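PT: before anyone asks, these are the final sequences, not the draft ones from last week. 501 residues across everything. Please model them as a single complex and drop the result in this thread when it's through.
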Amino acid sequence: MQSLSNRSKLVSNKKLSFMEKLYIPAILGGMLITFKHLFRKNNTLKYPEETKKFAPVYRGMHVLKRDEEGRENCTACGLCAVACPAEAITMTANEREKGEEGLYREEKYAETYEINMLRCIFCGLCEEACPKEAIFLTDRIVPTNFERGEFIYGKDRLVEKVDARIDISARQFTGKRKI
Amino acid sequence: MVKVTIDDVVIEVEPGTTILNAARQAGGDIVPPAMCYYSKLEGSGGKCRTCLVEVAAGSEKDPRPMPKLVASCSTPVMDGMIVKNKTSERVHENRGAVTEFLLINHPLDCPVCDQAGECKLQDLAFDHGAAKTRYEEPRRKHEPVDIGNTIKLNQDRCILCYRCVYVGNQLCDSRVHGVMHRGEHAEISTYIENSVDNEFSGNMIDVCPVGALTDKTFRFKSRVWFLKPMNASCECTKCAGKAVVWMFGNQIYRVTVRKDEYDEVQMIDGKPAWICNECRYDKKDVSKWTIEEPLKLKRTSVISQGHYDKPNPLNDSTKNLK
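LR: through. Structure below.
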């Protein structure tokens, strides 16, 4: 029967010639290829001494950004959690008290914000959904761990520190949205 | 009966019916949007101008078109009237302009606002609004204030539709809040710090088309699209006890009235099913409610993102299910 995909090949039972039966030319040809590779550029890296540069579109561990005055951008609107196809994001909101204006940008803020890094598929839909430019994916790698619970990242590990900002400008566009 | 044509749909209605109500009787997408008109509140309508329609022929006897667009919520139909709503370019343009006006002072705080997801102004802006504002002056700014123990007023978001004032007038025994000042300075205010503590005052949260009046017991607790709305009923001496409970797992986060397709309170046994404050604020316990069925949502509604056909049988919240 004729193949539908037209990709099948007929097997031939051709007899080998004398030269082919010797095998030595084929072995020499293979060794020649191996020998050539000694003089080529090395493709591997000596990790961890050397690390590879990430592509500009790389999506790694999340960061919750603060604005120029150090206030948290996130207002717990829940759009990232709706957009998340892996259901990795949960949060609870709270109201900003008087005197906390320096901590949170809007009158509502995320009291808890958790990302389950085992669920997360790093698709980047959360940063796309975010109307406040609060969540971004960075080029940092989520470290390994022995405990499952340790992969649920709370605000302590997601929010950037005021004195140690995470630079995302190389990969992300900020200021695109008028907040 | 008078015959009226709305966007090529011909219907017969009682004389004296407004164009908006005639369109609602016909149903479908020819119904103009309404921000201030509320059929269950007497005297509402005619303020927001979002329901403007074009009258291409005034009546059978006088088929001249009306020179200006008319507010369909307060214009009665005439025999042989021809109305254009979605087929009229002028209406679309003007509705966009009205939306722009409504949004002049409206803050862009939908991520914060509890009404987001079920807000009529959000829908209107999505359909007709421009992506950018042309308004350069700073928006007016008010601090959110408590009116009563259970209602929070965000004056910034108010579009002055007066619906809550009519609720105070018509549902409660005495109205203690109203609109003060004039023009740009107009604002909802309570009468000298008086709290709104009437038995049915909570219904003004449900009639508010925007997030100006919000439930303090639900404030910032969750977002509407994370909750599962269920039709539920309870024994109540003050009201019909038919409401929608918004659940998250086994917990009731908030209680609202049952709404119809025009975002108005449903008629049950010929009466609008307003609910009392006790049902709204105090009955947050599942055991106090008989849960009937999940609320039927439009597929396009953001609330339907956690869509489900029937309650999860493994979930304890269904133990009261009939």
